[in-house]
Specification:
Blueprint lengths: L1 E7 L12 H18 L8 E8 L2 H12 L7 E5 L2 E2 L2 E2 L7 E9 L1 H7 L5 H16 L7 H25 L1
Parallel strand pairs: 1-2, 2-6
Antiparallel strand pairs: 3-6, 4-5
Helix pairs in contact: 1-5, 4-5
């Protein structure tokens, strides 16, 4: 199974160049490892796609309002394609499994996580969004604790490969 990371940034958003081609390959490897770890059956797919889009504050606010009824921007939103009653249940064709979309608002990442260096904050929201694509949630104290632990572990792995690619 090969995981392909598709990154999209609007013209007025953060530059896509934050991620070098080496960084993208490294991030793909980390996300692929995590996916295989938590979803062993995913190895039957030839390719898995993960989409990350960077949005400006007004676009993120609009999407947040239309999907969550919250009239303000947020740092990250996830739109999983294969969540069924709180669990990850992919039903894609053997050739390709699109996981879903992670939307990131760099302005909100900086505002919300200003005490962290930007690269670390970005890795945090990417980890958070990715776990939501795999049906992880934080709607109970027990689930929150498990998700925060996994999120921290994944954030550290993502940050390490980003720093190695620089």
């Amino acid at each position: 199974m090969k995981l392909q990371l598709n990154i999209d940034a609007p013209e007025d958003g953060d530059p896509q160049s934050f991620f070098s081609s080496v960084a993208v390959k490294n991030l793909e490897a980390v996300f692929g490892e995590e996916l295989s770890l938590f979803c062993p059956g995913v190895d039957r797919y030839a390719q898995v796609e993960l989409s990350v889009s960077f949005l400006n504050g007004s676009d993120m606010r609009e999407i947040n309002e239309s999907h969550r009824n919250v009239d303000e921007p947020t740092d990250v939103l996830s739109f999983p394609l294969w969540e069924d009653e709180g669990r990850f249940a992919p039903k894609g064709l053997p050739e390709l499994l699109p996981l879903g979309d992670i939307l990131v608002c760099p302005e909100e990442v900086r505002r919300t996580h200003g005490s962290l260096p930007y690269a670390e904050a970005l890795c945090l929201v990417l980890a958070h969004g990715f776990l939501h694509l795999l049906a992880w949630d934080h709607d109970t104290l027990e689930k929150e604790q498990a998700m925060w632990e996994r999120q921290e572990h994944l954030k550290s792995k993502l940050l390490k490969v980003l720093e190695e690619a620089r």
